[in-house]
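job 3f2a | input accepted
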Amino acid sequence: MLFSAPVYVLKRKAKRLARQTGVALHQALDRVAVQEGYQNWGHLSARSGKDDAAQQVLAALEPGDLCLVTARPGQGKTLLGLELAANASRLCRKGYFFTLDYNERDVAEQLGALGYEPASVLERLVVDTSDEISAEHIAQRLRTDNQPALIVIDYLQILDQKRSNPSLDHQVRSLCAYAKETEAMCVLISQVDRSFDLSGRAMPSLADLRLPNPVDLSAFSRCVFLNDGKIRLDQAT
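job 3f2a | predicted structure (237 res):
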């Protein structure tokens, strides 16, 4: 989770609050942390300095981007995607998290793992766990909200798991067109094939994507690779 101001500024804010209200400093710190969306100051402190990946991606995203976030299981790609959606307001956008993998309770637990107070974040973040999620479903859902959006989709490889849905390639191209037309920022989470584990390379590439069905990867304007606590941002070609 990203802060509205540097930690030292938040501490000064808490000290002022303690003087003005007469509460103990630790209580004032907790109040400031809650305002930032954290459960308490301890959770905020624990996350301090650990949000570099989200900072980098948010700084790199541009209107109309179709961005791929990809990694092996357990490398934090879904947490990163959820953090991006939760912080869409920093880019003056509304955040959407569409997931075919998690249910509502899973999302709340993941928000808690990030240090958020789930209830406060879910007031501003739209979470959709419908089995109907597809490119068409996403576009229809967003047509009712006439404001810039940051969309995160979890995850690429199962968008076409229902036979009634268009092909994965068709949906990716549709999402690309939608992002360009509306200047939305669209992030798709993707899996990396397990063969990467035996490659000996430090970071996966587009060649390592697990693609059970063909996809024209040129639709993506930006790629984010995660592995072993590190991140690489690439401008797609």
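job 3f2a | Strands lie at 66-71, 94-99, 125-128, 149-154, 185-191, 222-227, 230-235.
job 3f2a | closed
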